[in-house]
Design a protein that fits this description.
Blueprint: E1 3-6, H1 12-20, E2 24-27, H2 34-40, E3 46-49, H3 57-62, E4 68-71, H4 81-86, E5 90-92, H5 99-114, H6 117-125, E6 143-147, H7 151-162, E7 166-170, E8 182-183, H8 187-193, E9 196-199, H9 213-218, E10 223-227, H10 236-245, E11 248-253, E12 277-279, H11 288-308, E13 328-335, H12 340-350, E14 355-363, E15 366-373, H13 379-386, E16 391-397
Parallel strand pairs: 1-2, 1-3, 3-4, 4-5, 6-7, 6-9, 7-8, 9-10, 10-11, 11-12
Antiparallel strand pairs: 13-15, 13-16, 14-15
The structure holds nicotinamide-adenine-dinucleotide.
Nicotinamide-adenine-dinucleotide is lined by residues 74, 95, 98-99, 102, 147-153, 170-173, 175, 200-204, 207, 210, 228-230, 254-255, 282, 284-285.
Length: 402
């Protein structure tokens, strides 16, 4: 029976899905360090982790039988993706499962900041009755500027518009504007027009320090600012200065350049204690609904990959979209050099077999060729394919993806 090891308290739906697909599943609450992980992976086909377990090149080298890793989260920095591809280990994550959760938190924070609810709440808890409309606004009719119009930015656009906001956005790519949202031609244009600016860019290295003193200075006086994307894209000192000077009327920050590792660890930030500033511990995507969907989504990807060879949404292997097949199928992950497909087809032909269907995709140093033939695959053909000098990993699948 194939085995799956799930670490870091992954939602039980993942165990259900893998169990139904015939896996013996062991689920542990915590993360494992490198040595313990290598020991625990003995005889394991699939590994599921969240953000704390490091899947290093050493782990992958030590356990060549491992087929795939599921990152039951969004980020995959904790996995050596290059080493995983070189070892023929597919890695999957859940890029959209918590999109809605982040969007709902952003909407809540926009309203909370516009009404200065944080300060009112703090005053009342401290015993001071401060009933006033000064500085409180409806969000209806106000202009929201979204920087980064991807999964989160575009969904936020739809919900903000439903609440009566005017939406403008800026993205490096030419994204489809949803509803009545309006594309800005430059970041500066967005900063000059928006009354609330919210960052939803991805974590590419070029975005380090994207938003700082210059960008705050371009924003309209008394505007609001949110960052729920990545900590390193924002200059926190510049935000502090802009809040203290009163140029920015309020801010919500969920992500930080250095986040405490453990529950209960001290959090240090220049943003602590500022008025009308909401600080949250990177919980934009942390809801039970998102965790459940992550469990469902990633476990599904692992099952589909091992059953059919499909690498849809793999973060490190070439993408080939496949379904089950009535044919016998093999998938060869190989070094991306000329002539491999010709050698594969020659070997198949030498065994008197006809290729029913074949797809090839490449990504960087690797190619992934999946071939269907309508006859059982002889053992010596499989041995010959696995022995090709360019072969990284050969997988075979029975008829109908079995
Ligand atoms: N706070 C949380 O808990 C939480 C949860 C999920 C995701 N996130 C973060 O939210 C961010 C957005 O996630 P997503 O799923 O929407 O990502 P995405 O990849 O779908 O969208 C990112 C968009 O930003 C654009 N972009 C990148 N750099 C840009 C720049 N410099 N200027 C303008 N546009 C730029 C891209 O073209 C893309 O359209 C990511 O950084 C992600 O890590 C945070």
């Amino acid at each position: 029976m194939p085995r799956a090891l799930l670490l870091e308290n992954i939602d039980p739906v993942a165990t259900e899905i893998l169990g139904s697909a015939g896996y013996e599943v062991e689920s542990l609450r915590g993360a494992l360090d490198e040595a313990d992980l290598i020991a625990a992976l003995d005889g394991v086909d699939l590994l599921g982790i969240r953000s704390k377990t490091q899947v290093t090149a050493e782990v992958l080298r030590s356990r060549p039988a491992l087929e795939a890793v599921g990152a039951f989260c969004i980020g995959t920095n904790q996995i050596d993706l290059t080493a995983a591809a070189a070892a023929g280990v597919a890695v999957f994550n859940a890029p959209y499962s918590n999109t809605r959760s982040v969007v709902e938190m952003a909407i809540a924070e926009i309203i909370i900041l516009a009404r200065r609810l944080v300060d009112r709440d703090r005053s009342l808890h401290a015993g001071t009755w401060d009933k006033s409309a000064a500085g409180s606004h409806e969000i209806r009719g106000r202009t929201l500027g979204i920087i980064g119009y991807g999964n989160i930015g575009s969904q936020l656009s739809v919900l903000a518009e439903a609440l009566g906001m005017r939406v403008i956005f800026y993205d490096l790519e030419d994204k489809l504007a949803l509803g009545n949202a309006e594309r800005c031609n430059s970041l500066d244009e967005l900063l000059e027009r928006a009354e609330t600016v919210t960052l939803h860019v991805d974590g590419r290295a070029g975005n380090a320090g994207l938003f700082g003193a210059e960008q705050f200075a371009r924003m309209r006086p008394r505007s609001l600012f949110l960052n729920l994307s990545r900590g390193f894209v924002l200059d926190h000192e510049a935000l502090r200065d802009s809040i203290l000077s009163g140029h920015i009327a309020g801010a919500a920050v969920d992500v930080f350049p250095h986040e405490p590792r453990e529950q209960g660890d001290e959090f240090t930030s220049v943003l602590r204690g500022l008025p009308n500033v909401i600080l949250t511990p990177h919980i934009g995507g942390s809801t039970q609904e998102a965790q459940h969907d992550i469990g469902r989504f990633v476990a599904g990807k692992l099952v589909d990959y091992t059953a059919t060879g499909t690498t849809t949404l793999s973060v490190n292997l070439p993408t080939v979209v496949l379904h089950g097949s009535s044919a016998d199928r093999f998938a060869l992950l190989h070094r991306n050099v000329p002539g491999v497909l010709a050698r594969v087809d020659a070997l198949v032909g030498e065994h008197g077999l006809n290729v029913d269907a074949q797809v090839l995709a490449t990504r960087g140093e690797h190619g992934y060729a999946v071939t269907d033939v309508s006859a059982p695959l002889p053992a010596d053909l499989l041995a010959g394919l696995a022995a090709l000098p360019e072969a990284v990993r050969l997988k075979r699948f029975g008829p109908r993806g079995g």
